Amino acid sequence: MKLYRTTESAVIEYQSRFHRIPDISWDDLICLPDIFDVVRRAIEGPPISFAPSTALAPIVGQEVWAAGVTYYRSRDARIEESKDAGGSTFYDRVYSAERPELFFKSAGWRVIGPGGAVRVRSDATWSVPEPEVTLVINSVGQIIGYTIGNDMSSRDIEAENPLYLPQAKVYDGSCALGPAVFLSETPIEKTTKIAITIVREGQSVFSGSTSLAELKRSPEQLVACLFSNLSFPKGVFLMTGTGIVPADDFTLNSGDVMNISIDGLGTLSNFVA
Length: 273
Known about the structure:
The chain is an alpha+beta fold. It has helices at about 25-30, 35-40, 70-80, 90-95, 155-160, 165-170, 220-225, and strands at about 1-5, 10-15, 15-20, 65-70, 100-105, 115-120, 125-130, 130-135, 145-150, 155, 175-185, 195-200, 205-210, 235-240, 255-260, 265-270. The chain has two domains: about 1-55, no CATH class; about 65-270, Fumarylacetoacetate hydrolase, domain 2 (Alpha-Beta Complex).
């Protein structure tokens, strides 16, 4: 089942039919421990006409957090980019440590939806997208679904000093989510494929893929750490890290189009403003 956010209400897609979920706000729906009961009642109602292309970013009052150095490829990239700043040992230790790297990524109102314009920092020279499976978690720490995330990152700023991570990761237009929330009462398959293609002036300039089997830490471990000493009354989105990193000589340009596809979740497309 896929859950879409519209200007009026939430819409659930089930067996190629769409049903409106009435009388409940997006925030109230996402934080519910019994969201699946609400959804099952909704799909018993009459179907409606709905165009998924009109869906908004699947977030309102939730925060977006992110996990780093969760894939071996990401660890290597972070070590390489920060070697001149003395940060390589930090990332190596984080990859093997019991405690994961978790950081705040975005407030809900800053998140860019499907088809929208993301940005690169005006003071950055080396910017890349990071395609990530993103967990959708209710107020009591249960994973209720998954969506596609784009964690835009300024690698040159982070490379200067690991303490610059917030500036490299958190800025206007740095986070995109969508197009829908794939609701599931069972964990996502470890074989789930994640892929990205970047198109510039009609030509593919980068493509890459990985799978959740390469994710070192389980989603449940990441959630447990996030909810340790933190509460999220409206629920929260948690990006799980990336295993796809372009070569060091690649940087995004204005007008580039990013298509991130994840098995079962669809495709999130955005362009660089």
